[in-house]
Design goal:
Arc Repressor Mutant, subunit A, Dna Topoisomerase Vi A Subunit, Chain: A, domain 2, 14 helices
Amino acid sequence: MEKKVADKELKELGKRLVKDIERGKNPSMDVPIRTLSNVIYSDKSKMITLGNKIAKRYFFNVAHVRKFTQTTEVAALARDLIEAQKHMSLREVFYAMRRTLPNSNIDIVNEQVESNKAVEDLELITDLLREQLYINANKLGAAAGRIVIKDKGDLIDWSKLGSGGWSIPSSVEELEFKKVDAKFVLYMEKAAIWERLHEDKLWDKMECAIIASQGQATRGIRRLLQRMNTELGLPVYVLTDFDPYGIYIYSVLKTGSISLAHISARLAIPKAKFLGLTADDVIKYDLKRQIIKFKDVDLKRLKELSKYDWFKNKNFWQRQFKMMEELKGKVELDALVTKGITFISDKYIPEKMKNKEWLD
């Protein structure tokens, strides 16, 4: 089904361009504008979404022709990938597009940032995910827990994959959930914390699934978490450090991101809850000695974060931001090891879940 939808959209794009040529018109594309001025936070959906502003991109326009050519080139490449049922990484796409135009010394792309932007533009024009175009990014995530899935015909039991867990792919559109005994999903920004919880078998003791990335979650992880929340009805809790960047990671998972506002509906999890370290935890567990002093850039990031539409009118979040500023530093989840090797698994997370000490 995914293949047919993507194939149809790419063919429609091609037909529109051919029709312009046949009518003697300047071939053009409608590209939604991805600047901050066209990004909106909706109180109703609790997500960042893209507005209705559109830019016309013409082939016979010196300012547009390069991007126009790059977009049509990646569209043709995606069409070939879908037809062959083969995937390419973003890096491979760059090399596949990096060729010189006939009778010239002009390359279609010189740097990967150009091919990446062409892929993003194609997403906007066709309303398709990059993964639906058979273009993938790197895999940076692991999962474990009481869940059995079917992926490319293989049954995979997340509870029986040794110490490494299941490596989350770039595209999770086609995987099926075959058996779910988990009651919730716990996502964390750090692989090291995931390894601690996995070794302690927290997912078995608390009947859940644990998922991790390395820093900001990849699109594949975000899409997987959203599917588990919407399709399986599993609550998603986000475990991060007590710092502006950890809270930003939670913010992106919950409301979406400015750069990917056009696909928030497929990635954002408005019902996600913050289970990470708070200023109250720092006091409760006597972690002040573990504070890492802020740099000027950290304080600047904190002030920016406090002004986000989805935070600025929530007193409990403003209280956290104020206390973080007063502490003049951050505290990492790893600092909980000072209370015991398995403290985070035996006490910290179970108690916070039992007492419903999460932020929304």
